[in-house]
Design a protein that fits this description.
The protein is mostly helical. The chain contains 13 helices and 4 strands. It has 2 domains: about 200 residues, no CATH class; about 190 residues. It is elongated, with a radius of gyration of 28 Å. The N terminus and C terminus are likely disordered.
């Protein structure tokens, strides 16, 4: 229920629907890439509902009304308009390039995340990520400035009331950090600017994350398809439901670190499976070194070179962890169905315990994926920030995608095998974005 405003102007923002499964996210992104006059309307624009005349104008003492805050607001609003206009112009310029209109059309599609971008399209995607990251950085900086000035203006108003003997009124500005609504913000020369900036910032953040998901999904697909070594023969003991299983067997199996396990114990099967996958994932570092040696063109700026290496490392690890995730998911599915038919209480208890170990390993992988994805996003944000702060030394991707050696290498290897017939899309699993199918799964379902 809305709290009465006591005559103050009330400001609201309306957020696009971002609930899972609605499709609102990508549709909102596509709409926001078009021109905007900043006058309000749909798709997250600002609506101002006014009651009495401005409390800022009513409540100010003469010396406060003519303060520096009132004169600073137009300049800050002009800066916001300039940032928005420049960004939209840059996006339109990208769209006007050869193939740009087709690429922008992909953004609104249901399968944007999972598209196997052609090399030229991936180059455009990287440029769009940087444009959005730079735009987001500028909006965040403007929001901080506007918020600071807004707070100072309210404090000055409160002080003026105290001086004149009026009861002080406490500022009640509040916002949802993770959302779009700013409700009940006290009016100042900067309150409208805060709302407009917050709306633009939150939309830009949403778009930035969407583009990063498409980027990592594309890179992970190429990495799993071309660069990662095949998952080794697991060589795990028999599960209780498999033919030849002997519950009384005294056979001993060993982990990579030499820990002895009883082969007939179902939990041993889960432990060996997880250990084998961890050993396979450990090969990723050497694979990264080989791929970078062949296809990476490090930029001259050592800081940007470090960031590019961080991104390549993160995306390789995302791909490797999710190949492992799929192996564990297959085991969970197969063993889970088989366990239903076990009648021996002891064996069934052991099998259920093994399944818990597999589920725990999957949870660990999801945590690692989030860690790697956060590192990937943070690295791109740092590049965008550096471009804004040092425009004379900005980094822009080259058309050959030398900044993404896995993408460049996959394109060269594919060209050696012959041109692809058409552009394809791959569905990521419903539960997490950028989870890639293994090569064997792709062959089975006909996606390669």
């Amino acid at each position: 229920q809305e709290v009465p405003s006591r005559g103050r102007a009330r400001h609201r923002t309306r957020a696009p629907d971002t609930r899972a499964g609605t499709g609102g996210s990508q549709k909102g992104v596509k709409a926001s890439l078009g021109p905007s006059d900043g006058k309000g309307g749909q798709d997250g624009d600002v609506t101002v509902v006014s009651g009495k005349p401005s409390t800022w104008q009513e409540d100010q003492a003469p010396q406060v009304r003519s303060s520096r805050f009132t004169s600073m607001a137009p300049s800050l609003r002009s800066k916001l308009r300039s940032v928005v206009t420049d960004h939209l112009a840059a996006v339109e310029q990208l769209k006007a390039e050869p193939g740009g209109d087709e690429f922008m059309g992909l953004i609104g599609s249901d399968k944007f995340i999972g598209t196997a971008f052609r090399p030229a399209q991936y180059h455009m995607l990287t440029r769009l990520i940087l444009l959005k990251g730079e735009y987001l950085h500028r909006l965040e900086a403007l929001f901080e400035v506007a918020s600071g000035l807004h707070k100072a203006a309210l404090e000055q108003r409160t002080q003026a009331r105290r001086t004149s003997g009026a009861l002080p009124k406490v500022a009640t500005a509040r916002s949802r950090d993770a959302g779009y609504d700013i409700i009940g913000i006290d009016e100042s020369p900067f309150s409208g600017i805060i709302i407009e900036t917050a709306t633009a910032r939150d939309t830009a953040r949403q778009e930035f994350q969407l583009f990063l998901q498409a980027d990592t999904a594309c890179r992970c697909a190429d990495i799993a398809r071309v660069h990662l070594p095949p998952v080794p023969d697991l060589g795990i003991p028999l599960f209780p439901t498999e033919e030849g299983y002997d519950p009384d067997s005294q056979e001993v199996v060993y982990t990579s670190s030499g820990i002895a396990l009883r082969a007939a114990d179902p939990v041993s099967v889960a432990i060996i499976l997880r250990d084998t996958l961890l050993q396979w994932q450990a090969q990723v570092e050497s694979v990264i070194s080989d791929v970078e040696a062949k296809w990476w063109d490090p930029p001259s700026d050592p800081d940007e070179a470090r960031r590019q290496h961080e991104r390549t490392t993160a995306v390789f690890k995302i791909s490797a962890t999710y190949v492992s995730w799929h192996v564990l998911a297959d085991a969970m599915n197969y063993w889970g169905h088989a366990t239903i038919h076990l009648t021996d209480p002891a064996l069934k208890a052991g099998a259920l315990s093994a399944l818990k170990h597999v589920a725990s390993a999957q949870d660990e992988i999801l945590l690692l994926k989030r860690e790697y994805a956060q590192a990937y996003s943070a690295s791109y944000r740092q590049t965008a920030k550096a471009n804004v702060r040092n425009p004379q030394n900005r980094w822009d991707p080259l058309p050959d995608n030398g900044h993404a050696p896995d993408v460049r290498g996959a394109a060269e290897l594919d060209a050696q095998e012959g041109p692809a017939d058409t552009q394809t899309t791959k569905e990521p699993p419903a539960d997490v974005a950028a989870v890639q199918k293994t090569h064997e799964e792709q062959e089975t379902d006909g996606s390669v």
